[in-house]
Amino acid sequence: DVAGKVTPKFGLLAVPAGDAHVTSRYFVPTDCHPTHAVSGAICVASCVALDGTISSGLARPAPTNAETIVIEHPQGTIEVALTLVGQGADRTIDRAGVVRTARRLMAGHVAIPD
């Protein structure tokens, strides 16, 4: 029973429908996340970039040594920047991160009397 718990977290991956590298649905723990958690996105992107993983076989197109991995999710995409070192089975992740931006919440004018 995972009621009231924050784990387990898991994802479902598929070949992307658009221009991303992979499609992911991230579950926390019983509902599909409306977008994608950053920690889960870094995990998915790392798996996409490393040879021999299930997700690397789904990736379209295959990533290169220094790459931004784009993951499709229900609300759009999330981009993960990876720096990879080595080749083939010796390839490892040197760095990983995302750029997060805030959406505009409101805009307006305030009338201030003279």
What does this structure look like?
This protein is an alpha+beta fold and 114 residues long. The chain has 2 helices and 5 strands; from the N terminus they run ββααβββ. The chain has helices at residues 38-49, 54-58; strands at residues 10-14, 22-27, 66-73, 76-85, 92-97. β1 and β2 form a beta hairpin. The longest helix is centred in the middle third of the chain and has 12 residues, at 38-49. It is extended, with a radius of gyration of 18 Å. It starts with 9 loop residues before the first strand and ends in a 17-residue tail after the last strand.
Order of helices and strands: EEHHEEE
Uncertain regions: pLDDT < 50 for 5+ in a row? none
Measured on Cα atoms, how large is the radius of gyration?
18 Å
Oligomer: single chain
Overall number of strands: 5
Helix/strand-derived category reads: alpha+beta
Report, as a whole number of angstroms, the end-to-end distance: 63 Å
Number of helical segments with 4 or more residues: 2
Shape verdict:
extended
Strand order of the largest sheet: 1-2-3-4-5
Roughly what fraction of the amino acids lie in strands? 25-35%
Main sheet record: 5 strands, mixed
Helicity, as a percent range: 10-25%
Mean pLDDT: 86
